[in-house]
Amino acid sequence: MIVRPEHWVEMPWKNGRGVTHEVWKDADPFTVRVSVAEVTEDGPFSTFEGIDRVIALLDGRGFELKGPMSRRLTDVGGPFAFRGEDRYDCHLLDGPVKDFNLMTSREKWRADVQRTTNAMLSPGDFAFAINDGVRAGDVSLGRHDFYRATTPARVSGGQAIVVTLKPRARSRV
Predict the structure, then answer these.
(1) N or C: the chain end with fewer CB closer than 10 Å?
(2) Which of the listed residues 105, 120, 150 is the one where a domain comes to its end?
(3) Which range marks the domain in which residue 40 is found?
């Protein structure tokens, strides 16, 4: 399955201070969601109880997140994971940015996220092309195309954010 940028769904942020483009989600309400946010001003990040988040810079000079694990993101595609209920303030370093955002239900999923030029996808894994020239199996991906594998596929030819989801073990009571 491929989702190209022209098919993203624009929606306001939970805190009303900006917009995000929903790329893909598994259900409504989601347990896995991929989006691209446009950050145009400094301010607080929305909080999401029970959600693990991974964010990566896509466009712009970068931003700094101040919170329990403060981090400066200036490296395109470099993932940063944090808990959705933790409070973070975003400070833009030099103008607006776009970022990749993965949200997963902590109760249901554990996500392994990496920036790579070469990875093997299993069915259910996905790749988000950082630049043109990325291939997923025999499919060519353009910049910011999303690909979800239905069969094993090698990602190669350019930089991509690759996500492997593993179900969390259910505890027996």
Answers:
(1) C
(2) 105
(3) 2-105
Q: Is residue 87 part of a domain?
A: yes
* 26-41 confidence digits (pLDDT tens): 988 899 999 999 999 9
pLDDT average, residue stretch 134-163:
97
Report how far residue 118's alpha carbon sits from residue 77's, in angstroms, rounded to the nearest whole number.
14
Question: How many Å apart are CA 31 and CA 62, to the nearest integer?
Answer: 28
Has this prediction a pTM greater than 0.85? yes
Please state the φ and ψ torsions of residue 36, each to the nearest 5 degrees: -125, 120
Q: Is 173 a member of any domain?
A: no
Task: Centre a 10 Å sphere on the Cβ of residue 170 and count the other Cβ atoms it contains.
Answer: 8
Residue 16 vs residue 19, higher pLDDT? 19
Instruction: Work out how many domains the chain is built from and give that number.
Output: 2
Residue 171 is given by DSSP the state P
Q: Which amino acid is at 57?
A: L
Confidence band for 172, pLDDT divided at 50, 70 and 90: low
Task: Give the DSSP letter string of 52-69.
Answer: EEEEEEEESS-EEEESTT
Residues 57 and 120 grouped into a single domain: no
- Side-chain-facing half-sphere of 48: CA atoms under 13 Å: 22
The confidence score (pLDDT) of residue 28 equals 86
